[in-house]
């Protein structure tokens, strides 16, 4: 295993290869990736906040959510979710419509422009990540891919835990 920010010495080093030490190194890499991700998302003509992007992604995954369900999904208050949707609607990224069965309920839908913005953000993020990956040795890139697959498999095998 190659250590983040270290030379290519792959020999086991005891506690520095333990889960806690590796977690600290990965956390540092995630911070860097988060910055790269945010910069790429802000690179387009429309600058969206993290909450706005998350709202659009939630509606992409589950079209027709109502405001309360969106607020719960984003873990924000109902008034905050309402203002967020007001801004997204004003920007032409989402539309509200009546629920076909419940008169008092309003559903939220992405507009074609909202779907276009999400696709554009995804392309810019993928391009920024590909630029960084292109600077890596192909064997290191494959090792990263294997490691990420193993991480996801391990995470998927664990029972879901609620945050404390």
Please provide a written account of the structure.
The chain has a domain at 47-141: Winged helix-like DNA-binding domain superfamily/Winged helix DNA-binding domain (Arc Repressor Mutant, subunit A), CATH 1.10.10.10. A two-stranded antiparallel sheet has the order 1-2. The chain is mainly alpha-helical and 164 residues long. It is globular and about 60 Å long. 61% of the residues lie in helices and 6% in strands.
Structural features:
164 residues; globular; mainly alpha; Arc Repressor Mutant, subunit A
Biggest sheet features: 2 strands, antiparallel
Radius of gyration, in angstroms, nearest whole number = 20 Å
What proportion of the residues form beta strands (DSSP E)?
5-15%
**Quick one: CATH superfamily of one domain?**
Winged helix-like DNA-binding domain superfamily/Winged helix DNA-binding domain
CATH class of one domain: Mainly Alpha
User: How many helices does DSSP assign?
Assistant: 6
**Strand order across the biggest sheet?**
1-2
CATH architecture of one domain: Orthogonal Bundle
């Amino acid at each position: 295993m190659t250590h983040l920010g270290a030379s290519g010495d792959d020999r086991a080093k005891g506690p520095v290869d333990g889960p806690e030490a590796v977690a600290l190194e990965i956390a540092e890499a995630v911070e860097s990736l988060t910055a790269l991700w945010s910069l790429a998302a802000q690179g387009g003509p429309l600058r969206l906040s993290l909450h706005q992007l998350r709202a659009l992604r939630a509606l992409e995954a589950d079209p027709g959510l109502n405001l309360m369900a969106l607020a719960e999904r984003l873990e924000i208050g109902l008034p905050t979710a309402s203002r967020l949707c007001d801004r997204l609607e004003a920007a032409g990224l989402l539309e509200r419509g009546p629920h076909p069965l419940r008169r008092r309920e309003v559903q939220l839908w992405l507009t074609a422009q909202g779907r276009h913005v999400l696709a554009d953000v995804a392309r810019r993020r993928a391009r920024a990540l590909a630029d960084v990956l292109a600077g890596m040795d192909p064997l290191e890139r494959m090792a990263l891919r294997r490691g990420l697959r193993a991480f996801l498999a391990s995470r998927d095998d664990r029972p879901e835990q609620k945050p404390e």
